[in-house]
Specification:
Largest sheet: 6 strands, mixed
CATH topology of the largest domain: Rossmann fold
Number of domains: 3
Structural class: alpha/beta
Order of helices and strands: EEEEEEEEHEHHEHEHHEEEEHH
Helix content: 10-25%
CATH architecture of the largest domain: 3-Layer(aba) Sandwich
Oligomer: single chain
Length: 326
């Protein structure tokens, strides 16, 4: 049987070794070699530009390593507000956005995360936790109807200890993540840590080992970490491929200042399908006559294919992204 392998393979450079960044904190990062050995590495220069998921070339520097080259990324998932940029991870296949039915999730934050994923051409998957709470879950599920209509995969799960494993929906959630690298994203309290511990029973031990290795103690809880997950192993045309989850810190705000307001509609599938049909080439889809997008917004007199809530979120984001550029 072929041994599962990581993707993709790196070209070798003389005197340099390939590696995968599996944890970062401050000026330190943990790099994993193709053989599975992990060692502390320090990027050259004053600023640490590497993130979890990066493929790098490194060399020995004393008893640690020095990152000499950052390989080209397929994508970089990040958020940006007025003050700073927060990079989550690179080279992703999926972004799993975990939200809960109770307390009520923020549709604005969900939409922001989806826009960020669309901007990098990363496929999002939405998981709605707490399916064991009948009424709150039914209401939350109904609010997600526009997202299902857009073609997003929306999965029901229950991470409650009272829910039998056979009924918790986790196995179904894993199916579209087989053999892929997935960032798990969600606000605090959504059940993210519970999901990670469910799929990676040794996660707490591994977190402790990384804390010890990086000498960063409790602060490592705010960092991003890579976990190989046997339940996510899959295959492609070249053979078995290992699946991985990347755990990220919880967030309450998700800035999109790195996205031009004129690009926003293209990052929202329900609006995107009507782009190009407007009367004016520079239509903002907010008030112009002959706007193909506005014609599809549901209202008292028309059904429409774009929910009024979604268009309000678009309008709010457009205003926010326009103001911050003045």
């Amino acid at each position: 049987m072929n041994k599962p392998k990581a993707r993709p393979a790196l070209p070798l450079t003389k005197d340099l070794e390939p590696g995968l960044v599996v944890a970062t904190y401050g000026r330190h990062c943990l790099v994993e070699t193709p053989e599975g050995r992990r060692l502390i590495c320090h990027p050259r220069g004053k600023k640490n530009q590497v993130v979890v998921g990066d493929q790098v070339l490194w060399q020995i520097a004393g008893d640690e390593g020095s990152i000499e080259k950052l390989q080209e990324r397929r994508n970089l998932f990040y958020r940006q507000d007025e003050i700073r940029t927060k990079s989550f991870a690179a080279n992703l296949d999926r972004v799993l956005i975990l939200i809960a039915a109770d307390p009520e999730y923020s549709e604005s934050q969900l939409s922001r995360a989806l826009v960020a994923a669309e901007a990098e051409r990363i496929t999002p998957v939405i998981a709605l936790n707490k399916s064991d709470l009948a009424q709150p879950f039914a209401q939350a599920w109904e609010r997600l109807a526009p997202y299902r209509a857009m073609g997003y995969s929306v999965m029901p799960i229950s991470l409650s200890p009272r829910t039998p494993v056979a009924d918790d929906g986790v196995a179904a959630l894993c199916a579209p993540l087989q053999g892929l690298t997935t960032l798990v994203l969600g606000p605090s309290g959504s059940g993210k840590s519970t999901l990670i511990n469910r799929l990676v029973p040794e996660a707490q031990v591994e977190t402790g080992e990384i804390s010890l290795a990086l000498n960063s103690g409790k602060h490592t809880t705010t960092s991003t970490r890579w976990y190989w997950v046997p339940a996510l192993n899959g295959s492609d045309e070249s053979g078995p491929v290992r699946g991985a989850l990347i755990d990220s810190p919880g967030f309450q705000e998700f800035g999109l200042h790195h996205i031009e307001p004129t690009r926003l509609a293209d990052c929202m599938p329900d609006l995107r399908q009507y782009l190009g049909g407007c009367k004016f080439y520079n239509c903002t889809h907010l008030h112009e006559p002959g706007c193909a997008v506005l014609a599809q917004v549901e209202g008292a007199q028309s059904a429409g294919t774009i929910s009024a809530r979604r268009h309000r979120i678009y309008a709010q984001l457009f205003e926010e992204l326009s103001q911050q550029r003045w």
